[in-house]
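User: Predict the structure for this protein chain, please.
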Amino acid sequence: METMAHNRTLGRSGIEVSALGFGCWAIGGEWWSVDGQPLGWGRVDDDESVRAVRRALDLGVTFFDTADAYGTGHSERVLGRALGKRRGDVVVATKWGNVFDERTRTREGQDDSPEHVRRALTASLRRLDTDYIDLYQLHISDADPERAAQLREVCEELVREGSVRAYAWSTDDPARAAVFAEGPGCAAVQHRLNILQDAPELLALCAESDLASIDRSPLAMGLLTGKHAPGRALESGDIRNAPPAWLPGFTANEGADPVWLQRVDALRSVLTSDARTLAQGALAWIWARSTRTIPIPGFRTVAQAEENAGAIAKGPLSPQQMAEVDRTLGR
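Assistant: Here is the predicted structure, written as structure tokens:
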């Protein structure tokens, strides 16, 4: 089995993080769009979320990715509470670009103005109970590239001022990600990457521009955990029960798509080799895909934190296992 350094570097920033990060979308709890569509992952127990974050810390996870919009501020508040005096031991990434009402837990729209960046940063610092953000990320995936160039310059100012250590764009478009990559303070691109949804162009950009690849949806929104069955609806407050167009693999009110589950089943034997769980095998594929990858699976419980963190010691898939994956998926 291949060994792997337990830490990776956030691109050219030099900031060191654990090879596995934790995504904090789910711990934000329920929140909604203005037309009533769920944007969270259902109900959460904040005390359990805090315990899970602290357990992850104890298991060597030092990178936590959240956003101001997750739970309309709630995820940041819970993460700040969980980290407490250990804030200096971790690398915190958050995002800006969405506008929301914390009282009604409603996302109201987006604001791509340079002025909004500083407003949003001030609010995030307060909720996270910190005086700096390690990685500040634009959360409007399809923002206009010319406007993004202006936002990149604001981020450069924030880096010079010390309130932000580095910045990134959360987008699945390589051309857009390249706009931010022109800034010396840009350290990463956050994008979707999992065994079912590869991103070769974005990984190539990361290699060319010396950026980290922060990988959201590494478990395909839960499909790669093995815990979903076809025809089983999720709770009403779960975004996967009313999936938007950008979220394939789930069907409204019917749960996981059987075609996607068949693909997962076909991969089960290779991913669960070397005593890995299915989820650990999915994370191992990402690490083997590129030395720049930092997957950020979501979590809501201590058990999930332990399972995800347990993948680190098992390392990446071997070249032979990677070849078997490609054969299985016909690519």
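The longest helix spans residues 145-161.
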